[in-house]
């Protein structure tokens, strides 16, 4: 993530926002979806806002509620990262046979449990 000037937590926030398909999300719900629950979500969101990767807007129905949206710039950055990750994973697994890939996937599923 250093190449993209992002932390893993910031990347996680952008992915969550992309998954909203253009719908807003508030800080509480965003934090509930995060992998690293102890992160300072407000600080991370503000850093991403300053980079132009997301927007914060006050909810019209409830002025105390802040709605967060990913920007086109944020979506573009994620698209570039997605392709880089695919290329990286292909490089990591290029020397494995089909059988070894299946075994690796099964082992990773076991570790995840």
Largest sheet: 2 strands, antiparallel
Mean pLDDT level: 90
Shape annotation: elongated
Secondary-structure element string: HHHEEHH
Q: Give the structural class.
A: mainly alpha
Helical content (DSSP H or I, runs of 4+): 55-70%
Report how far the terminal alpha carbons are from each other: 26 Å
* Quaternary form: single chain
Taking pLDDT < 50 over at least 5 consecutive residues as the criterion, the unreliable ranges are none
Number of strands: 2
Task: Going across the biggest sheet, name each strand in turn.
Answer: 1-2
Q: Over all CA atoms, what is the radius of gyration? A: 17 Å
What's this, in brief?
Helices cover 58% and strands 9% of the residues. By secondary structure, it is mainly alpha-helical. Strand 1 and strand 2 form a beta hairpin.
Task: Chart the SSEs and their pairings.
Layout: H1 8-18, H2 27-33, H3 41-50, E1 54-58, E2 66-70, H4 72-93, H5 98-112
Antiparallel strand pairs: 1-2
What does this structure look like?
By secondary structure, the chain is mostly helical. Helix content is 58%, strand content 9%. The protein contains 5 helices and 2 strands; from the N terminus they run H-H-H-E-E-H-H. It has a two-stranded antiparallel sheet with strand order 1-2. A hairpin with a 7-residue loop joins strand 1 and strand 2 (66-70). It is elongated. The model has no long low-confidence stretch (mean pLDDT 90).
């Amino acid at each position: 993530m250093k190449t993209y000037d992002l932390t893993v937590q910031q990347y996680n926030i952008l992915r969550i926002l992309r998954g909203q398909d253009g719908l807003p999300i508030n800080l509480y719900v965003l934090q509930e979806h995060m992998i690293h629950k102890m992160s300072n979500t407000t600080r991370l969101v503000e850093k991403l806002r300053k980079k132009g990767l997301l927007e914060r807007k006050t909810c019209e129905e409830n002025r105390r509620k802040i709605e967060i949206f990913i920007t086109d710039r944020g979506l573009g950055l994620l698209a570039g990262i997605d392709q880089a990750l695919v290329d990286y994973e292909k490089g990591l697994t290029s020397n494995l046979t089909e059988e070894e890939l299946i075994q690796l996937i099964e082992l990773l599923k076991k570790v995840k449990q």
